[in-house]
Design brief:
Length: 243
């Protein structure tokens, strides 16, 4: 990838800042962001595509598809210095992130990554020095347990598929950034209704390869090919559409 472009997220004030992480974390995860934000992948021209996932505004984003995409984004947020808190009903599916973050000298997981039950709890204070990514892995119709209320807090909702009830909730239809993997036709048509897509944008959603996604943002419709470095492959395995 020769150049980098940042996906326009509504209300973003310039490029995302750089954060410092421990050498132990960098040993496990190659940093995948730059001052343009967190790199997601490349466009059809080979240009790097990044998004300001962690910024000075409360931010809501949605991924629709397999767990691979959500876990890769979490790894890359960790590599920029973010705290990552995962609320999930399937904690075993996220354990590799905890292992990737490493351990304290007494053998406990470092607090950079926390895996919690899918229930309300108090979040740590987020700031420019300690941005916070809250991952809500609560099925296709998530309750909004952790709406982003503070600057430098991003809440990412992980949807395995699109459910008709999503259109009436706030998690999906008010998201600042949506990342869509391949959808069957009926779900692509539902995506059209939720995000007011044009007719010619529906069919491509059904034809995406396992390593492709569509990014929707402010006046943005971008096809992206996921790119994984070797250290990420060691943690996550090969790129795939499923979980």
């Amino acid at each position: 990838m020769s150049r980098s472009r940042t996906i326009d997220v509504p209300g973003s004030h310039g490029p995302a800042p750089e954060f410092l992480v421990t050498p132990e974390t960098l040993d496990a995860i190659s940093p995948s962001g730059d001052r343009g934000g967190v790199i997601i992948g490349s466009d059809p021209q080979g240009e790097a595509q990044a998004a300001s996932l962690l910024r000075s505004l409360p931010t809501r984003m949605v991924t629709v598809g397999g767990l691979y995409l959500a876990r890769q984004l979490a790894l890359r947020a960790m590599a920029t210095g973010a705290w990552v808190i995962i609320a999930t009903g399937r904690p075993a599916a996220w354990k590799m992130l905890e292992r990737a973050a490493g351990e304290t000298p007494d053998g406990k997981p470092v607090p950079l990554v926390q895996i919690r039950r899918l229930a309300p709890f108090d979040l740590p204070r987020s700031s420019e020095d300690t941005p916070l990514l809250v991952i809500h892995d609560g099925g296709a119709v998530p309750q909004e347990l952790f709406p982003p209320r503070a600057p430098w807090q991003t809440t990412m909702y992980v949807l395995p598929y699109l459910h008709p009830q999503v259109s009436s909730g706030t998690a999906a239809n008010t998201a600042d950034l949506v990342l869509l993997q391949r959808l069957p036709l009926n779900q692509a048509q539902l995506a059209q209704r939720i995000w007011s897509l044009r007719n010619h944008q529906v069919q491509p959603l059904t034809q995406l390869q396992d390593d492709q996604l569509i990014a929707l943002g402010n006046m943005t419709w971008t096809m992206i090919r996921l790119v994984t470095n070797q250290k990420e492959k060691d943690i996550l395995g090969p790129i795939r559409r499923g979980d």
